[in-house]
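Preliminary data (for renewal application), calcium ion complex.
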Amino acid sequence: MLAVAGSADAVRETILVIEDEEDLREVVTYNLKREGYRVVATGSGLEGLKKACDEAPDLVLLDLMLPDLDGLEICRRLRLDPLTARLPVIMVTAKGEESDVVLGLGIGADDYVAKPFSPRELVARVKAVLRRGPVRSEDGPAERVVQGPLVVDSSRHEALLDGEPVSLTATEFRLLHFLASHPGRVFTRDQLLRRVLGEQVVLVDRNIDVHVRSIRQKLGRHRTLVETVRGVGYRFQDV
Ligand code: CA
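Predicted structure:
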């Protein structure tokens, strides 16, 4: 975040809202502005794409169902353009669009909120994604990750829970380290397969659920650290 010289006020980030439902667009705009964000809003996908370049937003709230260009296509185009390739995108979805969420996360959206959502929930998501910054998860995770009671240290190949070592298989270790490195972020099974098990093609069980189940067993009372996002995938709790 940039600070204005001589002023205690920080320049807040710009949020681009692409949403064709006018009422919702206004509510979202109002609530983001109240939080101090600069908001640029449009009901058109094509115009949204243009504004994503012209207005240099820090984050895009992207409705998936738009009259002219659907949200997934917009997300795809944003990722292809070097100007917007790293721009954080939160998809806004309707109930029952879980398969679109899976697709969207697969092409690089950062998160999603499902309608109906409360303004408070939306603002929390926006803040969380902005906090993660424009650095995409393609950048390697830190070697030592601390999340609540859990420490995962890849340099020592050691996982500690409440200070006690946890015995994990190599695959479980990689999976847990990856998830814990991206708290609050949802990953599809396919993403986890590619990102975590990518190089271990033949030797391991490619069923992510099996590994997650085993990890949870070993986390015992902290098993809820690894959350199931129904119809989508898995997420490490943002503790
Ligand atoms: Ca819509």
